[in-house]
UniProtKB/TrEMBL annotation:
PANTHER family: HEAT-INDUCIBLE TRANSCRIPTION REPRESSOR HRCA (PTHR34824). One of its GO terms (molecular function) is DNA binding. This is Heat-inducible transcription repressor HrcA. Belongs to the HrcA family. Gene3D superfamilies: 3.30.450.40, Heat-inducible transcription repressor hrca homolog, domain 3, Winged helix-like DNA-binding domain superfamily/Winged helix DNA-binding domain.
Length: 348
């Protein structure tokens, strides 16, 4: 994330900036001095407040969309608000219960847990939710299962030490019967023991050659497909939910901005960068506007956090929406969901 220098403003200016942002977050409209006077209760006239708002505009924290209109916070103004003026809001007991219930009873499939977390984040926030499945550079396998769909098609299921289960459909060059498929399954899982797919493949090829046997073409094909699963790109590990929620936000009535959002959800490179911005610590990370990442969607904000399992393998999840988000509430929502998700993964 790029460093952004913040201005030094006095207490009265901070109170007025906070009032402008709070009102803007509620109504999505330019904020006038009279509204600020009621909200801030400073005991000064609207004229004095207008002067302070003009000063805040001069230093880039507010802007006026057109003459005689009220002011709106800039990206810089929102960043100052988040860093210095934001008050965290807790979740209700009901919201916490919903999150816990959604992430129960799924078993050991980390992929399903992450998808459920995305769904509940989108449901409660009313925004789009994102998550990246955990991965490990070693890609250590616990189990490979070849499941027959029909005589010439199988599913390769790879289960990793992170708890992640990935599947891929494979159409074979030759038919296979159940007995042969079981022999291959048993043979592969005897060899795995926390090896990577590449290591498993190399060991089996060497053993076959030493025994002067012909390498089984089906086993080679299955391992090739399993290896391609273990080396999926980060974009393939991203889950998205609630994208339709953004259509309800006034900021995305602009067709060009909506197109940018849809492109980001399609290629996922921007979403990966957002999720990878999550810090390694206990706190959540807030991204505001296009200046904080190399690629971003103008007018958007994001709140992201990491979750993890016992082996220290990390994934990340968060909320993407307009810059005008209730950051105080969404920070708590993302942080709590990440904590519950981490606990569920460790329990599985």
């Amino acid at each position: 994330m790029k460093d952004i220098k913040e201005p030094d403003i006095n207490e009265r200016s901070q109170i007025i900036l906070r009032a402008v942002v709070d009102i803007y977050l509620e109504c999505a409209e330019p904020v006038g001095s009279r509204s600020v006077a009621k909200k801030a209760d400073l005991g000064v006239s609207p004229a004095t407040i207008r002067n302070v708002m003009a000063d805040l505009e001069d230093i880039g924290l507010l802007y006026q969309p057109h003459t005689s209109a009220g002011r709106l916070p800039t990206e810089k103004g929102l960043r100052f608000y988040v860093n210095h003026l934001l008050e965290r809001k807790g979740l209700t007991p009901q919201e916490k219960e919903v999150i816990k219930n959604e992430l129960e009873g799924i078993g050991e499939d980390v992929g399903r847990l992450v998808k459920r977390a995305v769904g509940v984040l989108a449901k409660i926030s009313g925004q789009a939710a994102l998550a990246m499945a955990p991965s490990t550079p070693q890609s250590e396998l616990l189990h490979v299962e070849l499941v027959k769909l029909n005589p010439s098609k199988i599913i390769v299921v790879s289960v990793y030490s992170s708890g992640l289960a990935q599947t891929r459909h494979v159409r074979l060059r030759q038919d296979i019967d159940e007995e042969r498929l079981k022999r291959i399954n048993d043979y592969l899982n005897e060899k795995i023991k926390y090896m990577s797919i590449k290591e498993v493949r190399r060991a089996i090829v060497q053993e076959m050659q030493e025994d002067k046997r012909v390498f089984d073409s089906l086993m080679e094909e299955a391992l090739d497909k399993a290896e391609s699963v273990s080396s999926v790109s980060p974009e393939e590990m991203v889950f998205v939910g609630g994208a339709v929620n953004l259509l309800n936000q006034p900021e995305f009535k602009n067709i060009n901005r909506l197109k940018q959002i849809l492109r980001a959800f399609e290629d996922k490179k921007t979403l990966v960068e957002i999720l990878e911005a999550a810090g390694d610590g206990d706190s959540v990370t807030i991204i505001i506007g296009e200046k904080e990442l190399t690629t971003f969607i103008p007018g958007c904000g994001a709140v992201v956090a990491t979750y993890e399992e016992d082996q220290g393998v990390r994934g990340s999840l968060g909320i993407l929406g307009p810059m005008r988000m209730d950051y105080g509430k969404i920070m708590s929502l993302v942080e709590y969901t990440a904590d519950v998700l981490s606990s569920r993964i460790k329990e599985s």
